[in-house]
């Protein structure tokens, strides 16, 4: 049986890395959520991306079906080459955290990269059962390059 490494660049098998979060285990911290979201984009798991985005995030769309179509088109048109986590700002017990990362992608056969500082919140959404979960809140692009 061939083991695929996780798209999040951890060099771990996907099933043991981000796959467990894609199957429903809550991400334990902002970095794990960041990695699992990158991996979800790479694998076209757009429902995971939507479900881990705060509804009040600037990236959230009010109509799920059109948001889903938009994300699927983006995932199909993009190769997610590498994720490098540059810095994580979060301590256990905090309900907000930041992850600065560099993503390298390919679109239309053209490689490009960007660096972003993403903000994450630990909260319980209305109607959510169980413990609070981490959600992507927003990101600030820091630089672009090849």
UniProtKB/TrEMBL annotation:
<feature type="domain" description="YchJ-like middle NTF2-like">
    <location>
        <begin position="29"/>
        <end position="139"/>
    </location>
</feature>
<dbReference type="InterPro" id="IPR032710">
    <property type="entry name" value="NTF2-like_dom_sf"/>
</dbReference>
<dbReference type="Pfam" id="PF17775">
    <property type="entry name" value="YchJ_M-like"/>
</dbReference>
<dbReference type="InterPro" id="IPR048469">
    <property type="entry name" value="YchJ-like_M"/>
</dbReference>
<protein>
    <recommendedName>
        <fullName>YchJ-like middle NTF2-like domain-containing protein</fullName>
    </recommendedName>
</protein>
